[in-house]
Write a structure and sequence with these properties.
Length: 340
Amino acid sequence: MKSSKILKIKPLGFPWETSDPFLFCAHHRDVYPKGDGKLGLPMEELKGRNIGQDFSLKNGYRMYHGSHIPGFPYHPHRGFETISINKEGYVDHSDSLGAAGRFGPGDVQWMTAGKGVQHSEMFPLLNENKENPLEIFQVWLNLPKANKFVEPHFKMLWNDMIPRITESDKQGRNTEINIIAGELNGVHAPEPTPNSWAKNPEHGVCILTMKMEANATFTLSAAKSKELGRSLYFYKGSSISIDGEKINEYHLIQLKADEDIHMECGDTNGYLLLLQGKPIGEPVAQYGPFVMNTQAEIQEAFTDFNKTQFGGWPWPLKEQVHEKHKGRFALHANGTEEIK
């Protein structure tokens, strides 16, 4: 019998199903081969692929929209936020404001597209003598109508800024949790971008990544409001049990937010992502990279982009990457630079 605390259990597809205020979630896990010295793949590796639109998991990796370097060459956004949660590998960011960055394992990039920005997210293959694995989550968080036209902005939540808590059960088995947004058990994530829906604590936005050791038990504490949507994505492991309900790998579990949830991992380590937040509750009109409230606003977004290109593209390449030996950094539009 299904627990009364579970609202829905559903197999994961691509992209993953989300609930307001979230719009989209994708999990990318690719094991890229050795790089060719130019941060991309050797030509022989590209044969037989649908270059520019390659989402097939061939030989353990996808090229996405890249032609030589995997990733997402420059493209526009308006009206929402992107949250890139990196677990393994590296991501090179460039945008139409002249901002740029490279982030790596454990880092998170939070970008408010607002009134409009172009950006690229490429996956440079830095290793020439070994494989280049990549694992990243890409989450879209909506903006309310009042903030659809704020100035674009991006912020880095570096690995050493993100709180990590470890809970041990009675047998000493651990559950490790990264708190990317919101709070858990009194531990608070770093501040999000200034105009984010997550900025107001009353909106209850919480983003967690979790690793449960084999056979570990853990209780996810209740949120402060039953109005919040709470989605748990069990994307890797043998199984988990939630209040006695066994759930196999690669499933979405929608939960009541105002209930404590008792979890028990199966006989291999379990990996989960939690997305939680108060619904914005406004109409959503979406076409490709634009998310507004009406179809008329979508047409306006296309018109504005055709006129302005949201600032143009100040970089020499569509698949812009940074120097191979450059470390993790963030160059902001105002000229300030963070070096890690």
